[in-house]
Amino acid sequence: MTNILKSIRRFDEFTFYWLFRFTRWWRDSRLAIWVSRSGDGPYYAALAGVMVAVAVEGSMIFLQRALIGFAIELPLYWWLKNTLRRARPALERLSFRPVITPADRFSFPSGHATAAFLFAGLAAVSFPAYALFFYVWASLVALSRVALGVHFPSDILAGALLGSLIAYFTLQLPIG
Predict the structure, then answer these.
(1) Domain 2-172: which topology?
(2) C-alpha 105: how far from its chain's center?
(3) How far is 167 from 83, CA to CA, in rounded Å?
């Protein structure tokens, strides 16, 4: 079993360095920083607030689901990250320098990826005409975290899965 885990770890590190090199143009243009910041918490609240304020059809039920989903996501993500305690890439390899300073020491799962895919899952159901946009945006937020050097690929995959599962669970709840 340890050989399998070591192989997965080596592949994760190889993929991290490959993606980091491949996305250099994205970092140099600062687009990766902007995309990553679009996945920061306050923007979710602001977008939901604007949708409710302008009375977008379905925005109230979306807001209710988002509040429940994030009430589940935040403590669960925090508990997982602080229980599993996987070091970020820069802490694993002291010669590596990330582009941005991460908020904490641990990387698994990616909170940005978790929140982005939770939001995308809920928004895609509430506003199906924009589903593709929401999922492309969530994928770019997740990828930006590797491009900026603060997450391994498995961190963002785990975050995407966790966020999607929380969205699915939240959508099963009787709301409205």
Answers:
(1) Vanadium-containing Chloroperoxidase; domain 2 (1.10.606)
(2) 16
(3) 22
How many whole angstroms separate alpha carbon 83 and alpha carbon 77? 10
DSSP string, 16-29: HHHHHHHTHHHHHT
Each residue's pLDDT, cut to its tens digit, for the chain (176 residues) gives: 577 777 878 888 888 888 888 888 887 888 888 988 888 888 888 877 777 777 677 778 888 999 999 999 999 999 999 998 888 887 666 567 777 778 888 888 999 999 999 999 999 998 899 999 999 999 999 999 988 888 999 999 999 999 999 999 999 999 76
| Separation between Cα atoms, residue 78 and residue 134, nearest integer Å | 24
Q: How far is it, in rounded angstroms, from Cα 4 to Cα 7?
A: 5
Identify residue 30 by its one-letter amino acid code.
Answer: R
Q: Which of 41-46's residues contact partners 24+ apart within 8 Å by CB, and which partners? A: 41/115, 44/70, 44/115, 44/119
Our CA dihedral for 112, 117, 118, 119, rounded to 10 degrees, sits at 90
Cβ neighbours of residue 53 closer than 8 Å, sequence gap 6 or more: none
CA–CA dist 2, 59 (Å, integer): 48
Identify residue 60 by its one-letter amino acid code: M
